[in-house]
Design goal:
about 20% strand; single chain; about 210 residues; alpha+beta; two-stranded antiparallel ribbon
């Protein structure tokens, strides 16, 4: 969707040893995606990527953290990332409710796709944009340009199919939904989620300068 909007992508993979940019000069912003690891893991790349968030924050560049990326942002800002006190997970489709601040920004979907076993506390001075029953902190904004989103709007159908196959062992966790409900829910709710994602990307990153000049 970003490339369709006119952006070029500079893809870095810290778990594979890719170096992260020292500055975002020349970049419209940054996105940190999800992953099966925890934001609390002691792996070198987890700490390096979390510490790197100082770059977009200091330079006030647009940043979007999705799932693990949002949890890294919460950790970086002094929040906590931890499992539900009753062991519940969100793996499948779950209701979402926008806060007053969230509704003032855009229209939000009623159902979103989740695949996580941990959540995050709301960092100090952050604004909560969306909430849910099991994990109350679903989306937040920090400052002008930093955004954290717990749920997944970025999955293609092929990605969801791969997650359902490779992550099937997690469907027995308390609160998780069976794989058929993941794919069935997509037929109903994905169009609304994708429309919201388009609105979010425009809100966060705007339009490429080369297109708006």
């Amino acid at each position: 969707m970003l490339t369709q909007g006119g952006f070029d992508l500079d893809i870095r993979r810290p778990p594979l040893g890719d170096v992260l940019p020292e500055t975002l000069d020349g970049h419209a912003g940054a996105v940190v995606f999800g992953g099966p690891m925890s934001a609390n893991d002691g792996d070198e790349f987890v700490k390096r990527e979390t510490d790197w968030l100082a770059v977009p924050l200091k330079e006030n560049r647009p940043f979007l953290g999705i799932c693990l990326g949002a949890q890294m942002l919460a950790n970086h800002l002094g929040g906590k990332v931890e499992a539900h006190d009753k062991g519940l997970v969100e793996i499948g489709w779950y209701p979402l409710k926008a806060t007053e601040a969230g509704r003032a920004l855009m229209h939000w979907p009623e159902m979103v796709y989740q695949f996580h076993r941990e959540g995050f506390s709301l960092p100090r001075d952050a604004t909560l944009l969306a909430t849910a029953e099991t994990y109350p902190n679903q989306a937040f904004r920090y400052g002008e340009n930093a955004w954290g989103i717990q749920f997944h709007a970025e999955l293609t159908l092929m990605m969801m199919q791969r997650w359902v196959v490779r992550g099937a062992q997690r469907f027995t966790l308390p609160g998780a939904q069976p794989g058929r409900d993941h794919l069935g829910g997509r037929l109903i709710w994905d169009m609304h989620l994708k429309r919201w994602l388009g609105d979010l990307l425009t809100t966060v990153f705007g339009k490429p300068q080369k297109m708006s000049e």
